[in-house]
């Protein structure tokens, strides 16, 4: 049975039971915010207009997780909507009025009300010619996926499902109201949204959706980097990001959005001397998320950690070398990978902070292996902490997640080694305040002791004293002064006599 036929066939009895239960869930969730939603519905109804809770709000109500951001659609035109909101809402804003949308805030809830749309697209850009519609049927047909194309009319609470959205929701299937080729041609960003919903909801895309994504992957190049980045970030912060990434790679979208990821699908050498880097990276992503959730079960998803986990080995294809005797090496892949990460994230218009943090984690992720192979001095531990800086908690998670060996003995040895490193960091940090490693003399004292004004000499001296601090730990004040004087004499700087 094709996905399009599934919408017109009677569902099995068990599915009908689940659909009825889902509808009851939606009513329960709607009742939770009913005073506000029904007030609004009655207000529009009294003015002769129709109002529907729609899209993601209905989907989330059916899933039992309706929040306080509510989406509505109406036959009222934007200026009529404004009149109806004035005097009812605590705050009204019209930043989206050119697209027929007004927003409002009341009693802790944010609502967006959009006039029925019947847009047309030029299919060259993704910018629609905004056309207001007159029917809920036309509005729902233009929506991206069937699970987002359901509505509840207010105040009657009449359920509207014209495209099998309920059946798809129960079956956890992602399909489109219109043929996917038409939907994606109108707005190629919907292909990214398909992968995002797979990652967020754990749904399985219909075969025809996957086929259309595969055939039309190149169309994503019509979309701005900023919009692609937004969808990619939501995907990675979903409940099941691995599934979303796999769909991007399977359909070829990743070739245009994040080409370094499918490039990790290295051909395995006949002696299997290295892992499938792509699969390894997906496993590291899974394990990093497990560690993230274990550390803070109620916390927000860590986009920086997840990007770093996915991209930490993207330098391997460029650095792979087949060694004499059948071995394989990836020397300096962390250095190459950090540069590649920085370039890709900049192209996707990520913020300077995210670009820096993710590329630094990629660069640092191998540093620990020197510890597991031999004893580090306290100086090396200090440098590890200093170089990681504020990223140290994330680096701990990334390094632990990077252990994907099936050899339990080796895996346990690596985890024990990292446990030991964390314990040493804690001991030294307690004694020396590693989070705030500074030279034992500040800039003002350096200038006084050397008799110099602000300038490059002070910076060089400060940097030298910091290196000494990392190597030797905290110095007594007299020791630090003597070290500064010794360094200055080596640099040919005339040092004033001590007071």
UniProtKB/TrEMBL annotation:
Its EC number is 2.7.7.72. Keywords: Coiled coil, Magnesium, Metal-binding, Nucleotide-binding, Nucleotidyltransferase, Transferase, tRNA processing. It comes from the Bacteria. Residues 277-387 form the HD domain. GO terms for molecular function: CCA tRNA nucleotidyltransferase activity. Residues 404-438 form a coiled coil. It comes from Saccharopolyspora rosea. This is CCA tRNA nucleotidyltransferase. InterPro entries: Bact_CCA-adding_enz_type3_sf, HD/PDEase_dom, HD_domain, HDIG_dom, NT_sf, PolA_pol_head_dom, PolyA_RNA-bd, tRNA_adenylyltransferase. Residues 13-22 have a biased composition (Basic and acidic residues).
């Amino acid at each position: 049975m094709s996905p399009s036929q599934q919408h017109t066939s009677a569902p099995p009895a068990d599915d009908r039971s689940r659909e009825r239960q889902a509808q009851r869930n939606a009513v329960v969730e709607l009742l939770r915010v009913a005073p506000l939603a029904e007030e609004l519905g009655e207000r529009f109804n009294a003015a002769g207009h129709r109002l529907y809770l729609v899209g993601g709000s209905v989907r989330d109500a059916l899933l039992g997780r309706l929040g306080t951001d509510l989406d509505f659609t109406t036959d009222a035109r934007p200026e009529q909507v404004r009149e109806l909101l004035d005097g009812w809402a605590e705050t009204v804003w019209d930043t989206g009025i050119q697209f027929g949308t007004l927003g409002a805030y009341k009693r802790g809830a944010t609502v967006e009300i959009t006039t029925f749309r019947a847009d047309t697209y030029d299919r060259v850009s993704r910018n629609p010619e905004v056309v207001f519609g007159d029917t809920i049927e036309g509005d729902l047909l233009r929506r991206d996926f069937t699970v987002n194309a359901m509505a509840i009319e207010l105040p009657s609470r009449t359920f509207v499902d014209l495209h099998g959205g309920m059946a798809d929701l129960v079956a956890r299937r992602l399909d489109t109201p219109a043929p996917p080729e038409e939907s994606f041609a109108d707005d190629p960003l919907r292909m990214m949204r398909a992968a995002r919903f797979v990652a967020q909801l754990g749904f399985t895309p219909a075969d025809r959706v996957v086929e259309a994504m595969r055939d039309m992957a190149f169309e994503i190049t019509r979309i701005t980097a900023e919009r692609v980045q937004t969808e990619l970030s939501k995907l990675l912060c979903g409940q099941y990001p691995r599934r979303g990434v796999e769909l991007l790679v399977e359909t070829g979208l990743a070739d245009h959005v994040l080409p370094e990821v499918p490039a990790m699908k290295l051909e395995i050498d006949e002696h299997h001397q290295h892992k499938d880097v792509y699969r390894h990276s997906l496993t590291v992503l899974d394990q990093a998320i497990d560690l993230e959730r274990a550390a803070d079960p109620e916390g927000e998803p860590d986009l920086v950690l997840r990007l770093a986990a996915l991209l930490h080995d993207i330098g391997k294809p460029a650095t792979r070398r087949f060694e004499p005797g059948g071995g394989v090496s990836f020397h300096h892949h962390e250095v190459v990978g950090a540069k590649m990460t920085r370039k890709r994230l900049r192209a996707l218009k990520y913020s300077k902070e995210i670009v820096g943090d993710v590329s630094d984690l990629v660069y640092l992720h191998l540093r620990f292996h020197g510890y597991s192979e031999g004893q580090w001095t306290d100086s090396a531990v200090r440098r590890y902490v200093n170089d990681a800086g504020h990223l140290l908690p994330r680096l701990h998670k990334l390094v632990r997640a990077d252990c994907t060996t099936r050899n339990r003995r080796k895996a346990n040895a690596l985890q024990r080694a990292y446990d030991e490193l964390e314990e040493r960091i804690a001991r030294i940090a307690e004694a020396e305040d590693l989070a705030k490693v500074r030279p034992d003399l500040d800039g003002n004292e350096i200038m006084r002791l050397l008799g110099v004004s602000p300038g490059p000499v002070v910076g060089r001296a400060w940097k030298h004293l910091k290196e000494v601090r990392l190597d030797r730990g905290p110095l007594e004040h007299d020791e630090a002064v003597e070290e500064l004087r010794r360094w200055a004499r080596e640099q040919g700087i005339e040092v004033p006599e001590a007071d």
